[in-house]
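To close the chapter, one final illustration. This time we ask the reader to focus less on the individual chains and more on the assembly as a whole: which components sit near each other, and how the overall shape emerges from the parts.
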Amino acid sequence: QKEVEQNSGPLSVPEGAIASLNCTYSDRGSQSFFWYRQYSGKSPELIMFIYSNGDKEDGRFTAQLNKASQYVSLLIRDSQPSDSATYLCAVGGKLIFGQGTELSVKP
Amino acid sequence: DAGVIQSPRHEVTEMGQEVTLRCKPISGHDYLFWYRQTMMRGLELLIYFNNNVPIDDSGMPEDRFSAKMPNASFSTLKIQPSEPRDSAVYFCASSPHSLYSNQPQHFGDGTRLSIL
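The assembled structure is written out below.
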């Protein structure tokens, strides 16, 4: 079992819809969780981090953490074509990354 | 404030040659990380340093890979001898005083390495 797992996608949503990205992790002692966005040919860019169970909102982005289920998700509301990228879930201080989910937002 | 600076941006070399990748972290950051990204394996942590000391090199694939951090503003990742399967994008990242701060890692633009 991989330490951090994501559905590789691609996930395709229409413009204006909610995109839901999911991630599970194996280390029950993990304390910190991050979502990075990576455009093709670019470096990863941090968009959200969460430490506590529950939801954390930042603009159109909401991160959800459930430590009991070892599950973290990212919701993108009012999706825009500019959100089309690969979204990487990362766990822990030294960042163990999932494989990433490719998101495509269709106009 | 300058970000993490990596050089070269692109490197193409023949199998068997020595390759050296360079990284300058953000000033004041205590942690430095080297990652490798491929389509097959995704983004993998190779090694990380704290205050110039290697802390965890368990991700270094084999003895052909070595990393050093002689001072707080410079690190190298060396591959000798290089092989075609080493072809990947290599990222350097740095982070401030704690691995769990709310301003975690900042990535450089990466070095795209091709071994022919």
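DSSP finds no helices and eleven strands in chain A. The radius of gyration of chain A is 13 Å. With these observations in hand, you are ready for the problems at the end of the chapter.
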